[in-house]
From TrEMBL, chains A, B:
Pfam families (alphabetical): Aldedh (PF00171)
Enzyme Commission identifier(s): 1.2.1.41
Gene Ontology MF, one: glutamate-5-semialdehyde dehydrogenase activity
Protein name (database record): Gamma-glutamyl phosphate reductase
Annotated organism of origin: Absicoccus intestinalis
Gene symbol of the encoding locus: proA
Length: 409, 409
């Protein structure tokens, strides 16, 4: 059904990979401008989606993700300009090697090629991904959620019009279909699609991971832990707990479980209780002595709530905390609060999560906070990218080898 | 069927990731020594495989891959000692960032975790992979071919005995089964297996790529091209053609197609003809004027022979050569022979193959030749690793973030 579109996208790679830095910047600024100029058209399209959503009775949270406003369009536009200003990763030399036989080998960053993105209700993803792909000379193939159909089509068209006279070929392919079969086609076409990135809820991500034949960069799952060590600064631990859980509970880098060393459990939990008054607590018997809540089950410890809910457990040692994290973590982000740097380093070495913190909130696991400028999501897999997926992570590499007639003995 | 083994392997990661550089070196030297000490036992096991192979009437080529000898065991042992001497990639700091809020972020190399390897007849793969995995603190789960069953079991046992008193946990798991269902289990168990690397023929690799749920590093396919430019040094082009096709035709970095610019076609091909006397030529009409052979079909240009066969085509321009390579290449290795560096750079920029050469044989696409010391294979995918898979490519990364109470605004 979409084979022709996928073929065109793959063919576009050859031309688009050769587009130079200045032209890419010019294209990005043109998009930023056009989004503002065509604001009314985008908002009208968005209104169609909103009307449909109201008819279908979608949740307030989903409605909020879907809704566009002049301010949100302004933010998208500024986001695109920010990507324009980031330094160009393409062509960067990663390493250079001179071999004894005179061969000079350079490893350089190149585009991945075609990047398929399957996502849900937020229309800003359309613009974010397109901007990042343009900056990295990748061709994007976008499949948004049906809830945002009109908004996504309008945004894609506005962007395509903006760059039509600047780029030799369009790097933005929007799949104009709302059925699920096109997703299957997209995620299994190894000939035309180089990588698939799912962005959205667990259902979407698991569907893609389980059914893709194209290599996937898995994103999103975040069952993150905070461990309050016996050597913790308790004031600091309380501030971090509050920030990591409550500043924005719905996101993947928020914590779901607090492990607290028995030596400091009473002080920490007694003081945490009023701060977490509006949070539903699932605790073990020891922690429930100090903070009101209900008994936690194994299932609680294995659940990513993304909500005003928290698991708490008192542990007798750092090793018990590490053991717990190994059992339940999705390997996104974990934090230890301790004044003892040796204990911190042991904890950080022992864990293999993408991000391990000493004395800072897990909420910093974010491309912007890491200084990457723009991000596609948080990778929770071991291959290719881990943690925030910035511009470098949206690149592949190749080796250029310069000789003067070398042959192999 | 093998769930217990996969669970044990995954659990072993936690302990094995903490093993330090010196202990890993000691373990590798112990393996190298034990392989020599237990040579007779290994050769006896190999004889069982050979006897079975004779009964089943396998090909001479397969028999050669299967056969072990004191010399081959000596080579395996030396290979392990060489890996021992390579510098340790684990813990290497890839980048460090200081953020304006005082956070210090370090990206460091860590093990991948469990590495499943599915391979065919060559028993030396058992030792190569185990050594590389020990060096990179990865736990390997090996599934060899049924032809080499007794040899692989003996090699794995000898290695396990060698390290039993040195390592706190065994990082070598050999699947003791010859049926195909265990492969399915291995390549779909996302909970216990972090990455799958297939090593072998196209059938095996395609089976794994198409059926795996675990992330795969694809290896091996090599339809490589040599382009002889109008500005080529013809003597050099002839030497490279000979080396890249004939030095070892059965391997993935040998060339399958020569594209020659019309301006130099007559001289190059006339002189190539006697050098390629024993090679079966498939050419276009123009090339067959100068070198004997039969007409090439599209299928010829799309075939990786790994044999004494070559495709030849005369092109009118470098762009036609690039176009041809884009149509047929598996994106492994391509070479341009030209004295004109600007033309070379254009060619190398335009292609997105893993390795692009100016004036050197494609046979150099190899971990040893690149100076990596050891390699697991040649990656032909865009994600994670491209080209020779050395120790760095067998690592994942994590971020360690050091703070003093930072919370997110």
């Amino acid at each position: 059904m979409i084979e022709q579109l996928l073929t065109e996208a793959k063919n576009a790679c050859r031309t688009f990979q050769m587009v130079d830095t200045d032209t890419k910047i010019q294209a990005l600024h043109a998009i930023a401008q056009k989004l503002i100029d065509q604001q009314d058209r985008i908002l009208q399209a968005n209104q169609k989606d909103i009307a449909q959503a109201k008819e279908n009775g979608i949740s307030a949270a989903m409605m909020d993700r879907l809704l566009l406003s002049p301010q949100r369009i302004q933010e998208m536009s500024e986001g695109v300009r920010m990507v324009a200003h980031l330094s160009d990763p393409i062509g960067q030399v990663i390493r250079e090697m001179d071999r004894p036989n005179g061969l000079r080998i350079k490893q350089i960053r190149i585009p991945i090629g075609t990047v398929g993105v399957v996502y849900e209700a937020r229309p800003n993803v359309t613009v974010d991904i397109a901007a990042i792909c343009i900056k990295t000379n990748n061709v994007c193939i976008l499949k948004g959620g049906k809830e945002a159909y009109y908004s996504n089509m309008a945004l894609a068209q506005v962007m395509q019009e903006a760059i039509a006279d600047i780029l030799p070929v369009s790097p933005i392919y929007m799949i104009d279909a709302i059925d699920h079969e096109v997703v299957t086609e997209l995620i299994t076409d190894r000939e035309h699609v180089d990588v698939i990135i799912p962005r959205g809820g667990k259902g979407l991500i698991q569907h893609v991971v389980q059914n893709a034949k194209v290599p996937v960069i898995e994103t999103g799952a975040g069952l993150c832990h905070l461990y309050v060590d016996k050597e913790a600064d308790i004031d600091m631990a309380l501030q971090i707990a509050q920030n990591a859980k409550l500043q924005r509970p719905s996101v993947c880098n928020a914590i779901e479980t607090i492990l607290v060393h028995t030596d400091v459990a009473k002080e920490f939990l007694t003081r945490l209780a009023p701060m977490f008054a509006k949070v539903q607590v699932f605790g073990d018997a020891r922690s429930l002595q100090y903070i009101p809540g209900e008994m936690a089950t194994k299932e609680n410890y294995a659940t990513e709530y993304d909500d005003y809910k928290i698991n708490i457990k008192v542990v007798d040692s750092m090793n018990e905390a590490i053991e717990h994290i190994y059992t339940y973590s999705t390997k996104h982000s974990e934090c230890i609060v301790t004044k003892d740097d040796k204990r911190a380093q042991y904890f950080m070495d022992a864990l293999d999560s993408a991000c391990v913190y000493q004395n800072a909130s897990t909420r910093f696991t974010d491309g912007g906070q890491f200084g990457f400028g723009a991000e596609v999501g948080i990778s929770t897999q071991k291959l290719h990218a881990r943690g925030p997926i910035g511009l470098s992570e949206m690149c592949s590499t190749k080796y250029e080898i310069y000789g003067n007639g070398q042959i192999r003995e």
